[in-house]
Design goal:
Order of helices and strands: HEEHHHEHEHEHEHEHEEHE
Structural class: alpha/beta
Strand content: 15-25%
GO molecular function, one term: RNA binding
Catalytic activity: adenosine(2030) in 23S rRNA + S-adenosyl-L-methionine = N(6)-methyladenosine(2030) in 23S rRNA + S-adenosyl-L-homocysteine + H(+)
Largest sheet: 8 strands, mixed
CATH architecture: 3-Layer(aba) Sandwich
Number of strands: 10
CATH class: Alpha Beta
Bound molecules: S-adenosylmethionine
Subunit structure: Monomer.
Distance between the termini: 39 Å
Radius of gyration: 17 Å
Number of helices: 10
Keywords: Methyltransferase, RNA-binding, rRNA processing, S-adenosyl-L-methionine, Transferase
Number of domains: 1
Helix content: 25-40%
Shape: globular
CATH topology: Rossmann fold
Function: Specifically methylates the adenine in position 2030 of 23S rRNA.
Strand order of the largest sheet: 5-4-1-6-7-9-8-10
């Protein structure tokens, strides 16, 4: 397994994923009571964009690089950009925060984070990132196994992000089954499952499996920056959300179309938000 998120950190898919994450966390914060945030595939938590290996592909330039200097009227985009700016001291874009760092920037003293990462080097970086942070617990190992142990949490409110690298064809099935099993253990939790859109990806099969599972209230948001049949590229990505808090659908409907315009890479870009399974 060779996946290293550093090469992709801050690309259009990260921007989309992290904007949706901000939408879900901000919505959870509308209630005073504390919540738990769990990640099964947490990565390193922070990525140095000046690293020569990262500079070779520099995917971030067509992602966060396009938004970095832009002002936005959209509250979600503003909150997301504030989290990215929070790890950069000064006007230059040098560092990109991973999802754990973005979540940490948003949560309150009454909330807590549980983070799993399997790759030992990445997990060591993640543990250093949150050393001495009493609101964050880092666990090195398989995120799917950790999920079983985490749920249901005592807080009774919270969000689980599943963000696997999809290195093997079997991962599509594994992640779909994991989210349904997790929902069985904790049916009131909010779940967000990220997936890539590329030619030949079994997205329809994943959606059919979710629809057939009996789980209700599944919202899907997708962004395509290339036409969906462009070969050999990541054409876009999506997030399937179970139990999204009230009004997150409307907020994403507002935030994503302008974002697709900013992140467009091919001749056209599209964004859509739709209920895969309603109430
Ligand atoms: C897409 S990256 C995560 C990025 C991160 N969520 C973010 O947005 O900043 C996927 C991560 O999952 C890790 N990984 C792969 N399989 C795993 C597993 N079964 N359990 C936990 N982590 C895993 C990889 O090492 C990689 O760091």
């Amino acid at each position: 397994m060779n996946y290293r998120h550093a090469f992709h950190a801050g690309n259009f898919a990260d921007v989309f994923k992290h904007l949706v994450l901000v939408a879900l966390l901000e919505a959870l914060k509308r209630k005073e009571k504390g919540f738990a945030y769990f990640e099964t595939h947490a990565g390193a938590g922070r990525y140095d964009l000046r690293d020569p290996a990262v500079q070779k592909t520099a995917e971030y330039r067509d992602g966060i690089g396009r938004l970095w200097r832009a002002a936005s009227a959209d509250p979600l985009t503003t909150a997301y950009l504030a989290a990215v700016r929070g790890v950069n001291r000064g006007p230059a874009l040098r560092v990109y925060p991973g999802s754990p760092r973005i979540a940490r920037a948003l949560v309150r003293p009454q909330d807590r984070l549980g983070l799993a990462e399997r790759e030992p080097g990445e997990c060591a970086r993640l543990a250093r990132e949150f050393a001495r942070d009493r609101q964050v617990r880092v666990e090195c190992g398989d995120g799917y196994a950790r999920l079983d142990a985490w749920l249901p949490p005592p807080e009774a409110r919270g969000l689980v992000l599943l963000d696997p690298p999809y290195e093997s064809a079997g991962e599509w099935r594994t992640v779909g089954e994991a989210v349904v099993a997790a929902h069985r253990r904790w049916s009131t939790g909010v779940y967000a499952l990220w997936y890539p859109l590329k030619a030949g990806a079994p997205v329809a099969r994943l959606k059919q499996a979710l629809e057939a599972s009996g789980v209700r209230r599944i919202l899907v948001a997708e962004l395509e920056v290339w036409p969906n049949d462009t070969p050999f590229r990541l054409n876009g990505c999506g997030m399937a959300m179970i139990n999204p808090p009230w009004r997150v659908d409307e907020e994403l409907e507002r935030a994503l179309p302008p974002l697709s315009g900013q992140l467009r890479q091919g001749p056209r870009a599209t964004a859509r938000v739709e209920w895969l399974v309603p109430e």
